[in-house]
């Protein structure tokens, strides 16, 4: 593809999501509420795990606290900029800001993929290898594993940002999306993007497919182990422990696969699908993990001074 002109872009304009003008105020307030509750809900979980002595040394809740940090970060990167779409006037994003948004979204998003896999492995060890669990997954090891997910996520985000922005962008500058993401930005490049689209699909596809496969295999073993539990109450508690994680993995992975594993497509449903990992999932995580996890609820009661008793996972 030939360049439209010789001047490289210094800013982009995000078109946002299409909406009826009469709903402008409602949508602004709605996403403001979503963002506020996301930050407060995840902050509450983070504080609960940090303060409660029975939680902050256990790998499952260390991972949950890190998940809250990731959710707060992803929401902060995307939602405030989305809200600007519901205000008057054109508000461009600088070229460097677009690079940073794409990098941090894929950095935190891929870190979350790796963390979900690590959480599934933790549940596998706790349920299928209970006697060896304290050796195979203790607090120090869980922090080390979690650090590895951050390093891997930062590398993945850097690769995606470099692949996307090493191309020339010389016009037009209107990104038909609500944030700077790879498929939407690549459509504006003044060069052939076939290789980029292929590499992006393979790169993200490997991450999504490998993480999802490991999670699936972990839960196959977990389900088989749970079915061997004779006591109905024991099976119920085991399923309850894993239910929240399975729910959020499904809500997170399905939209990501829909968006990134179809190179060269421009489906209008992409924007709706992208709302799940960027705003809906970070909002739902605290509520699902709090409402379905008895220990978190008991820890909250202890923090606010209410009655509570210890429980076993």
From TrEMBL:
It comes from the Eukaryota. One of its GO terms (cellular component) is plasma membrane. It comes from Hipposideros armiger (Great Himalayan leaf-nosed bat). It is found in: Cell membrane. The keyword Nucleotide-binding does not apply. The keyword Cell division does not apply. Putative odorant or sperm cell receptor. This is Olfactory receptor 10G3. GO terms for molecular function: G protein-coupled receptor activity; olfactory receptor activity. Residues 41-289 form the G-protein coupled receptors family 1 profile domain. InterPro entries: GPCR_Rhodpsn (IPR000276), GPCR_Rhodpsn_7TM (IPR017452), Olfact_rcpt (IPR000725). It is a multi-pass membrane protein. Keywords: Cell membrane, G-protein coupled receptor, Membrane, Olfaction, Receptor, Sensory transduction, Transducer, Transmembrane, Transmembrane helix. The chain crosses the membrane at residues 26-49, 61-83, 103-121, 141-163, 204-227, 239-261, 273-291.
